Amino acid sequence: MTTPEQVAAENAMRMHDPRVADIRGRMLDVSGLDDAEIAHVVAVLDAVRDWRVAESRMSEASRRYMNLGDNDMRALRYIIVVTDRGEVATATGIAEHLGISSAATTKLLDRLERGEHIRRLPHPSDRRSVSIVIDDATRRAAQATVGREHARRFHVAAALSPAERDVVIRFLTELSRTTESDWS
What we know:
By secondary structure, the chain is mainly alpha-helical. The chain folds into two domains: 1-66; 69-143, Winged helix-like DNA-binding domain superfamily/Winged helix DNA-binding domain (Arc Repressor Mutant, subunit A). The chain is built from eight helices and two strands, in the order H-H-H-H-H-H-E-E-H-H. Helix 5 packs across helix 6 (102-114).
């Protein structure tokens, strides 16, 4: 059973609840909403927070399991997708996908190669380039972690009706726009 103190402590941590974080209404006017509506909005924001926490935990667990950083994991995923399409993964493609310099890409590939996650092989049609091939064990590990998690997420989204998906898309798109800076 949850004690009143535990409820109070949990509510105090809801920094996205205007009744907690903005009691004087300096940042947000909620005068047009009753308490039940505010609580419902906060429940949506709680769910977003919970998703971010779960996503962060899963990403961290995958990185720890494979002993890799974010860009390393993103590069491996890119290599898997490109090669599964029957295309050749290259350093240039990885750099463009990650939005990093060629020097940073070289360091990333050196690190992945030292960890035996990838191999650099001659490009099948361009003598000036090399192809990047993922190690079979790394592919299996990535599919068992990130791939399995992606499949679960896909099934959750697929279980929604088209109208529900449209609401989620609209909400997340608008939520993403709130991070656009007015300072730039």
